[in-house]
Design goal:
The protein is of the alpha+beta class. Helices cover 20% and strands 19% of the residues.
């Protein structure tokens, strides 16, 4: 077909396409070891939760315009990788959408899926039809089907006429949807992860995909940083604690300027945070009982007590059953409208296991418990204003979720249960003990592909069996495994308020490809120099256990100076026998794993805890040793989990028999 005829048939493009720099390009995260979804999404039994299910997710309000059957221009991977056409493109169709990813097939392959691939539609490798023409890029038919048609120009005209492609403002909307109203250097009030009954002043150090990397002010210990979403209920504007009557740790200058309402330009203000719906608090009194997600163990819903009623709808609750702390260090602040607190009897009605207080495990009933404790249940009116929410989450759907026990980690997860608006998120490869109850509007769960979109590292599922080194080429590389409890708790999340961020819908619906510039026809190449396709790149294998005896250490280092896991999860050490450690060995183990000069360590040394006793310590034992300080307990619990996972199988079996008999 002559160029002139082709021009008449396709006409002119009606919109321009700008250069696109994706959000992840500016990321400070190490994305080389981030988990890749490709192989998992290729399985027919894997279903990703739809983007529209996440009210806070980028492109949530307009992703419904991204549909199966639309056409895009992508890199041609099925071509010679050398010569003048080494960097070429071709048109592909969207066959399936999973989160932000699309299952793509090059035009011309028909029902042949041998060259199919998955790619994020928000990456800089996917373009609207017509992009190549505007950028002077060649469109080359894939090598496997080059001889299938004699006139590829006519073929594309027929395939593209009436088809739909990405809107011209698509990438602008991507950028707008990940922009934050917060700025680096701003100050706010953040829950104290080392003492959850209070808040501290913190400074925003980094922003990734509307998640804030925060550093506590005037805190001199190494573990003084925290991650959370900008709509998290764990952060508040400057002066919030004073307004609601909450405990805050700050210097005198901060108290003075809050009292005078003298805000600085770097102070976060109330209009930057969600506005919570007010609940009926008239008859709510301290001492009343309810059910609540345990802020320090999000896999459980427990019996709880209202300890204090603050102003503006906030309450302090305490999980019944913990050893009493006269200082109130284990009180936690929930807003009365929080979807993570429930009326007495909620778990029984919804067939959820309620964790009763210590001593009531075999005989708990609300009637008997209220009678025995001479207390009353919180009035049902407190929970009535909640509007029913119809969500799109289903059991078995895949998500990316923040590990709230170590909130710097975003991990591969699965919705394991739905109860009304309540979701239970299971972290793939991990025991159910690490599950987390979340609200369907929680800002700590994200669509599949969110991490790649914004540039946040994604932790892959834990391998059930450690991979062995083999001579054949590996099929892929996984990121570091999830290190549960490797850091203090990030209690509670996921309120149901509307987002404060302004989101706009696309300026126009997904356009049809009813016209294209004539230059596109001239860029279609039907022949190219012959060359040998080089072999695919060799990916790095999973790190396995070292067989070099010189590398084996009796006292292992399991975490680095930042508290990150220093060895791959699942790695076994046949020579590791912590059951034979002396008290000094235990102390050395804690010291080289960055737990030093801590009252818990001192207590372990003073009470002469040897290796066998150390391995048998439970949370209640650690709490007593640490004088009910949660931070050190969580650190040691994580080290114990890492140590037990690395022990040789015989030792592990022996340890399990000890726990069964105790």
């Amino acid at each position: 077909m002559a160029g002139l005829d082709f021009e008449k048939k396709l006409g002119k493009m009606s919109y321009s396409i700008e250069d696109y720099t994706p959000p992840y390009s500016q990321s400070k995260h190490d994305l080389k070891s981030s988990f890749q979804w490709n192989l998992l999404l290729a399985r027919s039994d894997v279903l990703a939760a739809p983007v529209k299910a996440f009210r806070h997710a980028p492109m949530n309000d307009c992703w419904q315009n991204i549909i199966v059957g639309m056409k895009v221009e992508v890199e041609n991977r099925d071509t010679d990788h050398s010569g003048v056409f080494s960097n070429s493109f071709w048109v592909a169709s969207v066959l399936r959408i999973s989160g932000y990813y699309a299952h793509l097939r090059y035009e011309g392959f028909g029902q042949d899926g041998t060259k199919d691939f998955w790619m994020s539609l928000c990456s800089d490798r996917v373009h609207p039809v017509g992009w190549c023409a505007t950028k002077g890029k060649p469109l080359i038919p894939p090598k496997s089907i080059q001889t299938k048609h004699t006139d590829w120009k006519d073929f594309l005209v027929k395939r593209l006429t009436g088809a739909r492609t990405l809107p011209s403002n698509f990438y602008c909307k991507v950028m707008e949807s990940v922009s934050s109203i917060f700025r680096i250097g701003m100050k706010l009030e953040l829950v104290d992860k080392m003492r959850i009954c209070q808040v501290r002043v913190a400074t925003i150090k980094e922003i990734t995909g509307r998640r804030l990397y925060l550093q506590y002010d005037e805190v001199d210990h190494d573990d003084n940083v925290f991650w959370c979403h900008e709509e998290s209920p764990l952060i508040h504007p400057v002066g919030w604690a004073r307004r609601v009557g909450h405990q805050v740790v700050a210097n005198q200058d901060y108290f003075d300027r809050c009292a005078m309402d003298n805000l600085l330009t770097t102070d976060c203000t109330p209009d930057m945070f969600p506005e919570y719906r007010q609940a009926h608090m008239t008859n709510l009194l301290p001492g009343m009982k309810l059910e609540a997600v345990d802020p320090l163990n999000l896999a459980t819903i427990c019996v709880a007590t209202v300890m204090k009623v603050l102003r503006h709808g906030y309450i302090m609750i305490r999980i019944d059953g913990y050893e009493n702390d006269a200082t109130g260090s284990d009180w936690f602040c929930y807003h009365a409208s929080s979807p993570l607190i429930f009326p007495a009897g909620f778990c029984e009605r919804n067939k959820i296991d309620l964790k009763p207080p210590t001593g009531w495990e075999e005989k708990f009933t609300w009637y008997e418990y209220l009678k025995d404790t001479s207390s009353k249940a919180a009035p049902i009116e407190l929970f009535c204003p909640r509007d029913p929410v119809e969500h799109d989450f289903e059991r078995g759907m895949k998500v990316e979720a923040a590990d709230q026990m170590d909130p710097k980690l975003i991990c591969v997860g699965t919705i394991s249960r739905t109860v009304g608006r309540l979701l239970k998120v299971h972290f793939d490869g991990w025991e159910d003990d690490y599950d987390q109850w979340m609200d369907c509007e929680s800002v700590d769960i994200y669509p599949v592909g969110w991490g790649e979109l914004v540039g946040h590292k994604l932790e892959g599922p834990r391998q059930a069996v450690p991979l062995k080194k083999e001579k054949k080429k590996p099929v892929g590389k996984r990121g570091k495994k999830r290190a549960h409890g490797n850091g203090p708790a990030s209690p509670g999340s996921g309120l149901s308020q509307n987002s404060n961020g302004k989101k706009k819908s696309l300026e126009s619906p997904v356009p049809s490809v009813t016209s294209s510039p004539p230059e596109m026809a001239e860029k279609i190449v039907t022949s190219r120099p012959e060359s040998t396709t080089p072999p695919p790149p060799v990916l790095e294998p999973e790190t396995g256990s070292s067989k070099n005896l010189d590398d084996l250490r009796v006292i292992p280092r399991l975490v680095d100076t930042d508290g990150h896991t220093a060895v791959p999860r699942g790695t076994r050490d046949e020579n590791l026998d912590p059951g034979s450690w002396s008290c000094d060995d235990v102390a050395q183990f804690l010291e080289i794993n960055e737990i030093k000069c801590d009252p818990l360590v001192e207590a372990i040394i003073e009470q002469k805890v040897d290796g066998q006793k150390f391995l048998s310590l439970k949370q209640a034992d650690l709490m007593k040793l640490a004088n009910n300080k949660f931070g050190p307990v969580l650190k040691v619990e994580n080290l114990l989990a890492l140590l037990k996972a690395r022990m040789n199988p015989a030792q592990a079996r022996f340890l399990s028999t000890i726990h069964k008999s105790s």
